[in-house]
């Protein structure tokens, strides 16, 4: 299994030319080969959503995708969410202000999930948002503040 | 600053994905460790053959028990009862495997993928033996004399031991005599709490490397108790404690299980020493669910002697605790806490509880948020509901009748809790019930629920009352220093598992120094930065580390004022510290900033003014007693008769924390706790087949609540009973969100079914509700006393 193949990934606008085994997951490639450790692994079997990233604008479980499948796509991870070092993305800011995180391990996955949702549908209502959020797990917050933060971000992004 | 809803200092880094969790530490040349685990629950290990694994290119080493035979079993950190010693776990299985998931061998390879390939090539031959999975069954032979002697490590031979590791009685008053009077009514209850656990979103992991140049073993990814683990690792590797540096990176949730010293941790440290390479181990989720401490899993049997007005004169209880296959670092902690906290907020003049800690061929058991209280509160509050139903009294009424009165505080219960004598330091239990009833209109809720029931819906209202504990000592310390640019740092031995410790400690420091909390930097969780720390457990840090920081800040203020007085040639009485500067009370324009004072304290000048160099100060806080917060949980549930689903419509929590250092964070702790409690009440359970095969090893079959299952949580934080035993008056908030969830949900389900005492075990499965609902349909009594 140690045959490697060269692939090229575009992540947050940067180009990464890496050499990996075909069996390597996208999550591992992002973390270990691209050095983007903001994408977390909480289960590696597609349930927790900690590894959620955006592939061509759509939320994807990075643990369920092989890196080789992501060639030619545009990938966004939590590291690419904030516009710069000084400012945060509205979703990030809302999570901070509404205490939407505690340990922060699930947070990148939730941020990408919500950012993806709101970029596609800025007027997402609370019920739909709860549905969307229920695809990821958080063990610390009890979700209420995540929901509040997501709705605050929705308001800002649609406003 | 104290009491402010300050934004968390931790968040900007975490929100950018810039945190450093265990798996985020990388070193050139690192090796990856993979554990080979037992596929059977009980068996004799015939052979472990690693030859085939070693043939793979990139596999550096592979060990089985023989390679680590010189290591002792893992020791106890808490409640180290001597009779438990023969049940300690070896680092790798020693001749016998005792649960599915027990480490049998370990391989080290140049990549994580390769290590997994290699682990699959390790051939383990095991002669399977019958599994013992029912802790209620009579004890069976457990370890033979040779294993018992080895595991105990006492140097004296021990006989073989059975599966009841310990049995101990906690009591006061005279239960026998009380029951013997023949007066009063006897009410009995059986209550079962399923096996579930913390399951933080980040699995465990550790990275260790021996830095030859510094002669130090550096370990990243620790959590909860880095100082204790440092000492244990130093012992096991033959280094001195000061040569072992344990660093807590970001921690993705703790909740009790995470951070204890496990076999894998020892192996990582040992491998870094032996292989002289950085060694990284990251647990996967399936391993986590098999290998990291499980918890709960208790069966209570209560027998109460009750007077007609509901007063509980005596309680005679016993419980079995399903310990799993070994006794790990917690020793008898959970059993002992279950016992001492069982009476909760009630007087109960005569009390006895007998704990039976029993081994089974399952994953070993340890603490999980509110250990012993989640279980005991469920059992006790079920009993109180049953008393109310049998005597035809209201549920609130019986609780009020039994509360320890505010006039009797501090109230000493003549037993021990976590090795300290148990004194409820303060509390007004009645007042909290009154406030909750008023704030959320309990009578209104009851009326509404009754009306909906009359209209045919299966809805119910229920609650549970509890006492928590927090702030176990004995001591915690902190240092505050100000650098020559005026930047304030708090350095301490506290740990954080994600609760927001940095923010709270910064707020405490900021309060005294008169600066914004986000100008304070907190450094902690590193054994090379501070000399001592007991760890993040038992909801102790706000109390212990918070008080230490308060004391350090006061000492720093005194030093700054002294130096300023010298410089300005005035007396200290003429000065005050405000806005990060020492200034003249009479003329606030005459001031010296903390940065200026720090510069005055550079070594040469400091010696001249007879001060120790540097603007810094240490503070320590010592405590012999715990402090006891308390609370009330209440729930409105609706049952779906068709599916048997329990839908939680409302969840209300009242909690007295003495003083809330940051109400937002307190509420966050409560809400998160409730979600976890709901898991244990309705969804989460580690189930086992009769042969000991675990049935819940992924997130498909171990069900953690999602945003769909957790209702809005309404929280009333009160500060009516500040703790008299610490300078801040604070009581911990970490566990009270979880404590009474099973009790409250069960009570509400009973009410919805109009069948008091129907629910005697959690998690409450849809099947059970469906069956119960079918039985009551058509014969539903009118709303009765059970709703009281
Ligand atoms: S790590 Fe990908 S869904 Fe859990
Ligand atoms: S904040 Fe810890 S898991 Fe969500």
- The number of helical segments of chain B is 20
Report the C-alpha radius of gyration of chain A, rounded. Answer: 16 Å
Structural class, from helix and strand content of chain A? alpha+beta
Q: How is the main sheet of chain B built?
A: 7 strands, mixed
Largest sheet of chain A: 5 strands, mixed
Number of discrete helical segments of chain A: 5
Oligomer: heterodimer
Mean pLDDT of chain A: 97
Helix content of chain B: 25-40%
Q: What fraction of the residues of chain A are assigned to beta strands by DSSP?
A: 15-25%
Low-confidence regions of chain A = none
Helix vs. strand class of chain B: alpha+beta
Shape of chain B: globular
- Give the beta-strand count of chain A: 5
Strand residue percentage of chain B: 25-35%
Radius of gyration of chain B: 28 Å
Describe this structure in words.
- The complex is a heterodimer of chains A (159) and B (788).
- With 159 residues, chain A is an alpha+beta fold.
- Chain A has five helices and five strands; from the N terminus they run E-E-H-E-E-E-H-H-H-H.
- Chain A is 33% helix and 16% strand.
- Chain A starts with a strand and ends with a helix.
- In chain B, the strands form eight sheets. A seven-stranded mixed sheet of chain B has the order 3-5-1-14-11-12-13, sandwiched between helices.
- Classes of the chains: A alpha+beta (159), B alpha+beta (788).
- Chains A and B meet through helix 1, helix 2, helix 3, helix 4 and helix 5 of A and helix 1, helix 3 and helix 18 of B.
- Bound molecules: FE2/S2 (inorganic) cluster (FES) (2 copies).
- The site of one FE2/S2 (inorganic) cluster has 12 residues of chain A, from loops.
- One FE2/S2 (inorganic) cluster (FES) sits between chains A (101-107, 138-141) and B (201, 253, 498).
